[in-house]
Amino acid sequence: MSGDIAIDDNDIPVSPQGEAERIAALRRYRILDTDAEPAFDRIVKMVALLLDVPIALISLVDTDRQWFKAAQGLKVRETPRCIAFCDHAIRGQEIFVVPDAKADPRFADNPLVTGEPFLRFYAGVPLVTADGHALGTLCALDQAPQHLDARGETILNELAAQAMHELDVRAALGDLYDQVDRGYHAQRALRSTNLQLAALLNATANAVVAADSETHIIAWNRAAEEMFGYTPEDVAGRPMAYLLSERYRAAEAGELSQCGAIGDGTPRLLHGQRKNGQEFPMEVFLACWDDPLAAASFGIIVRDVTLRSQRLDEISRSRVHLAEAQRIAALGSWDWTVDDDLITLSEQMTHLLGLSAERSVTKEAFLDRVHADDRIAFRAEVARVLTGDPSSSFTFRVRGEKDGLRILRGSCRLVEGWDGRVNRVIGVAQDVTDLSRREAVEREREKLVALGELAGGVAHELNNLLQPILSLVELSLGFIRRGSLSADDRAEMGDYFVCVLDYTRQGREIVRQILRFARKEGAILSDVDFVAEVRGTLGFLHGVLPSGIRLVTVIEPNIVGTARVNSVELTQIMTNLAVNAAYAMDGQGRLTVSLFEVAFSGAACDSLGLQPGDYFRLSIADTGQGMPEAIRSRIFEPFFTTKPIGEGTGLGLSVVHGIVHSWGGAIEVESTVGQGTTFILYIPKLRDIVSHEEM
Amino acid sequence: MANILLIEDMKGVRLALCAVLRHGGHTVTEADDGASGLEILRSGRRFDLVITDILMPTIDGIEVIMFLEAQSNHPPIIAISGGGSQMPSDKALMLAKTKADAVLSKPFDNADLLATIDRLLHK
């Protein structure tokens, strides 16, 4: 047939009713949008080969599109119906040929002709159902004009019939086709799931073990192999209880077979055992399910919690340790996150604040425990820390539980919170009530000891004065009682009384000093002849030192000068240092007291914290055991003592330090272990202005 | 009457006791500290009695007494003590340590001193 006739034949409009029926027929075939199938693919391949065209299609014409069940030489799977050559072909029952689309007024403007894929030739045979509906075409296309000869027409007709047959077979198989299709998809989905599961199972560090309903192990993952140390062959068929520690197996095996709620998510903490016998704590999640093949119906997920158990142990041990340490030290701690109104208290802090069991209180409740007079100061200290002071320390009183006011020494510090913000204040407070009382008692005791030492020295001095007075007065009385006195007797008695007068006056001076001390006039400084004061004190030292100590005095010749000190305190200091020295020498050794004059300027002043000028350098050196640096650096601290408990108060040197500083002087100590210790006092020497002007 | 060595570093005490002893009829040799006292004793001079102070610088009375104790047939010793801070225990300790024949605590009466000397010389 010629193309012209074909055009006329196929240009008959289709009635709406006929089209609806045709679409219904197409739907019945359930072919649209199905996957490619070899039977159809083969047909279009044959068309392309046999007719020597680049493009061949099985096109099904839908409501407003043509969809290709099979396509050779074309990548698209569908095009709009309005531009479809096939829409023309299906209006007839016979082959529809367009030898050159450019020369055909119906197709010259078709976008498939003017643009990609630049079609020129079309030959399509309608695929007509038994009841006469053309579902689409089998068509051949080329980008060059072509003439379809009789042989070509026959081939296309035969193959179209074959395509229609395949469509009919496919429709006849119907549901079976779908089932095969669904099975194919389900299989692929299953395979994908299996791959995902396998990947996940191998990626986790948790052991995953599957077992049958009798809990015999069927499979497990790599982590299980590593955790327990068994190969899959080692454990296959063994009960899961095999993974439990031998010691606990009997008690815990039941846990592994009781699976109440599927995936209840509640872990059991059990004792595992590795192949090498090592026990470890494990956290076990149980799962069970109804398996259709009854292959596996039971599973466990095991997490090795050795590290966590150790951490928990450590944490709980440190907690106990901290609480115990706080209890022993009577030291509590508190923690306040600034944004929050609540302050967290340690157990000991709760106790110190006189609260019963509260471990967390509001700011106001905390301050309420603080003595009313100390609240403002307490707030100020916390505020100071909040505004940038790195830390603060202070003393405050709290109302105790039953025994009245307690004195707490506290300090606090601003710290970084867990979220990196600097908004937490952490504080500690220690009960120093007893310590404060003890300090007061110790201070008093120290005073008595110092007084006792002083009294001993004074007694010795007085006795040595009273002895000649007593003896000489008695002798003189003997002379007088004898009646007649010779001139020699009178002269001798005169000498006696000169001595008696002198000794009595010396005694009076000693008594005056004692009274000054007793009236606590100690702190009053006066300008004294420093050298004479030192010499005077050396007399006391004789009476105080044990007999095994040799006292050597080295005083710079012709040294004179005045210092503004307190004589009683000077005696106290020298006595204290001498007694310490005697202790360091264990009663045997040499004590050297030296007095020189020195002039200070510049760096020498800075290191000692002194003003430039002239100083008396009074040193007291012993040949005792000396001190290591750790002790040397602390000796001026109050209560620091190296003496056994009960022998020393530790206050002596801190008092000495305080007194020397109150005179504007300084004290330093040099010590070599095994050789001895030297205390050096620098006392400002007053410039004797009056005598200077007189000169 | 006796030939007595008096060792005492406090000048006032030494002078007064010397006067008492001389008026009591004794011959007195004075030493103004422990060192010179020991020197005199070591020189071989013999005394009927030695009186020594306890607390003295460098060589004290205890050393003097220990020196005498080491000699056979040593003269009787009287220790005189000025007393220190721990008087009561100090005295007992001193007696035990020094083995002095008598201890007198300053200030003592002349009569006590002379009576003690008398007692020790006629024992």
UniProtKB/TrEMBL annotation, chain A:
One Gene Ontology biological process: regulation of DNA-templated transcription
Residue stretches making up the PAS domain: 193-238, 342-389
Keywords: ATP-binding, Kinase, Nucleotide-binding, Phosphoprotein, Transferase, Two-component regulatory system
Domain Histidine kinase: 457-687
Domain of life: Bacteria
Molecular function GO terms recorded: ATP binding; phosphorelay sensor kinase activity
PROSITE patterns found in the cross-reference section: HIS_KIN, PAS
Catalysed reactions listed for this entry: ATP + protein L-histidine = ADP + protein N-phospho-L-histidine
Cross-referenced SMART domains: GAF (SM00065), HATPase_c (SM00387), HisKA (SM00388), PAS (SM00091)
InterPro entries per UniProt: GAF, GAF-like_dom_sf, HATPase_C_sf, HATPase_dom, His_kinase_dom, HisK_dim/P_dom, HisK_dim/P_sf, PAS
Entry-linked Pfam families: GAF (PF01590), HATPase_c (PF02518), PAS_3 (PF08447), PAS_9 (PF13426)
CDD domains from the UniProt entry: HisKA, PAS
Its EC number(s): 2.7.13.3
NCBIfam families: sensory_box
Name assigned to this protein: histidine kinase
TrEMBL record, chain B:
Phosphoprotein found in the keyword field: yes
Top-level taxon in the UniProt lineage: Bacteria
InterPro entries the UniProt entry points to: Bact_response_regulator, CheY-like_superfamily, Sig_transdc_resp-reg_receiver
Ranges of residues in domain Response regulatory: 3-121
Keywords: Phosphoprotein
Residue numbers bearing the 4-aspartylphosphate modification: 53
Gene3D superfamilies from the UniProt entry: 3.40.50.2300
Pfam families linked to this entry: Response_reg
Transmembrane segments: none
Record flagged with keyword Transmembrane: no
Organism placement in taxonomy: Bacteria, Pseudomonadati, Pseudomonadota, Alphaproteobacteria, Rhodospirillales
GO biological process, one term: phosphorelay signal transduction system
Name this protein carries in UniProt: Putative two-component response transcriptional regulator (CheY)
